Each structure stands twice: as structure tokens, then as C-alpha cells.
Amino acid sequence: MRFEELGLNEAVAKRLSEAVNGGRLSHAIILEGGSAADRHAAAMTVANALVCSGRGAKPCGVCKDCVKCSADSHPDIFVARGDSEQKSYPIDLIRQIRNDAYIMPNEAERKVYVLMNANLMSEYAQNALLKILEEPPGYVRFILTCGSKSSLLSTVISRATVFLLGAEEVSGDDELAARGKEIANRLANAVMAAGEIEVMKVTSELEKDKALFSACLPELREILCGALAVKKGGLPYNEALIESKLAGQVSAERLIRMLNDIQEISDAVKRNANYNLQLTRLGTKLR
Ligand SMILES: [Zn+2]
User: Fold this and answer.
1) pLDDT of 249
2) 180: CA distance to ligand 1 center in Å?
3) What one-character DSSP code corresponds to residue 78?
4) What is the CA(50)–ligand 1 centre distance, in A?
5) What is the per-residue burial (b if ≥16 Cβ within 10 Å, else e) of 7-20?
6) Residue 108, CB half-sphere, CA atoms under 13 Å: how many?
7) 105-119 average pLDDT score
8) Cβ contacts of 75 within 8 Å, gap of 6 or more
9) What's the mean per-residue pLDDT of the chain?
10) CA-CA-CA-CA torsion for 228, 230, 234, 236, nearest 10 degrees?
11) Domains, the chain
């Protein structure tokens, strides 16, 4: 897709296109705001333009690189979404990017890393990324997208050029994910509160809200995995405070047991098993 076809604010589309085509795009950019679909389309168009080998305005849409881009199969464009089941960026992925960045591009003159939903990166992940953002090889470009850059470290933001696509449009999905995360945090705290009342208080809010229940389960798993990582001497994932607290208060055996229970409950919910029964089961397993 060409820049003018993106349906973005005209001034932003022009600024992006001129920066790419004029070879003035900094080695890292942040695409902020607008809808998730806008950010995705804009990021992929910039990535495409950066590897395009055609003449004239890029992306040309017809060169071999553009053809591969439209099939989402260009070997020099790496896309991470941070929106898989775990809704985060594992630190290993950032390390992998850091190592991979030193390997020359396969076909194009550039190698592009697109990190969608970069706001989901933990502070640790961002600090790990910073090492390569500060001094990337000349052929490397980074494109970060986020609804709002408020969760990005100022050190990361200062290494990049920010393009504001518009006011952030929050989709129902984002909202649900945020609520799921909040419930998961409260459940994790309830686990430490000892006694079933706290757990019951939170699970009662999930009654009649299967979508929220389903959204909270992977978040809760993530927190427990983070706590387990801390227990093993590693770094927490996203909720550093709760995960460290959990690691201090709950045994590894119990964490693993809860993780297995939550996995089973998630699977059951996906199979459409009696939902209220699964909710009760969660309450029993967490107290
Ligand atoms: Zn092209």
C-alpha cells in the first residue's frame, strides 16, 4: 500500500513518505496513536518502502521486494506483535533481535524490525532493546507502534522519531485486555492475601462475563510465570512488583500447580465447558 492510500491524516502521510523517500528516516521511529489497524498498515508500508528496490516513489508496489512484502514474506522484515496469547514481549525475543540485527540483510539493503504494541514491552525488555537502539548497524531500522508512548521509557523515545498518527482510538479488544489484566493483578494479590474471601470477591466479578474471564486467564498465567522466573533467579516479566511479591510469598510448587490448573481451566473454557463451573474451579484452585 502506498502512503497516500493509508487513509492517514494527509500531513502525517506526507511527512512519513518524504522522510522515507528522502532517505532521512532515522534508524528508529515510533508510530503513535490512531487505531491499531492504522498503526499496523502504516508500519508495514514504512517497512515495505525501506526494503523497496524500485525506482521512483517507494514503495513502488511492483519490484521483487514489494511483491514479497504484499505476501508478508520479505526475509528482511521481522514483525513482532506482542499480542499473542501472552500479551507481552519475552526478554528472549529482544535478545534474539539484538543478535539477529548484526547479521547482514538477506536480500534488501536494509533489515527492518517492526515491534507492534511496543508499549507491552516491560522495562527490562525496553532496556534490552535500548542496547541495539543506541548503536544499530547502519542497515538496521526499527519501527515501534503504540497507542500511547506513555509506557515507553524516555530513553527509548529519545532514540526515535515519533510520528503521531492521530488521537488514540481504543478498540473493544484493547479495553477488554486492559480489564483482564487488572482482574488478573487483583487475583494475584488475592492469592497472597490468604483466605478465600479475597479470591471470591474478585471471581464474583467475572460471573456472567465470559469474555472478561477468558481475557484474564492468560494475564494471570503471565504473572505466575513471571513470579516463577523470579524464583529461579531470573527477571520478572511485566508486573515486576506483584511478581516479586508472589515469588517471595508463594512456593514454586504452588506456582506450578496454579499454572497447570489455569491452563486446564483455559482449555476447558475454550472447549465451551460449563463456564460457571470453571469459574468456581478457578476460585477453589487459587485459595
Ligand atoms: Zn518496490
Assistant:
1) 93
2) 41
3) E
4) 9
5) ebeeebbebbbebb
6) 27
7) 95
8) 68, 106, 107
9) 90
10) 100
11) 3-166 (3.40.50.300), 172-286 (1.20.272)
Ramachandran angles phi, psi of 38, nearest 5°: -60, -45
Separation between Cα atoms, residue 45 and residue 263, nearest integer Å = 38
- Whether 19 has a pLDDT exceeding 70, the answer reads yes
What residues contact 25, with CB distance under 8 A and at least 6 apart? 19, 46, 50, 141, 161
Task: Name the β-bridge partners of 143.
Answer: 29, 114
Beta-strand pair 140-146/28-33: parallel
Q: What is the dihedral of CA 58, 62, 66, 72, to 10 degrees?
A: 140
Between the CA of 232 and the centroid of ligand 1 the distance, in Å, is: 48
Q: How far apart are CA 2 and CA 45, in angstroms?
A: 7
Q: pTM for the full model? A: 0.66
Cβ neighbours of 3 (radius 10 Å): 23
CA of residue 48 to ligand 1 center, whole Å: 7
Residue 86 has pLDDT above 70, yes or no: no
**Dist. CA 103 → ligand 1 center (Å):** 23
What does the pLDDT look like over 130-146, one tens digit per residue?
999 999 999 999 999 99
Angstrom CA distances, 45 to 37, 66, 80, 198, 241, stand at 12, 10, 15, 48, 38
Taking Cα atoms as reference points, which of 210, 199, 181, 211 lies closest to residue 274? Answer: 210
| The three cell numbers locating residue 95 | 535478545
pLDDT band at 171 (very low <50, low <70, confident <90, very high): confident
Phi and psi dihedrals of 31, rounded to 5?
-100, 115
- What would the 3-class secondary structure string for 3-56 be? HHHCCCCHHHHHHHHHHHHCCCCCCEEEEEECCHHHHHHHHHHHHHHHHCCCCC
CA of 61 to the centre of ligand 1 (A): 5
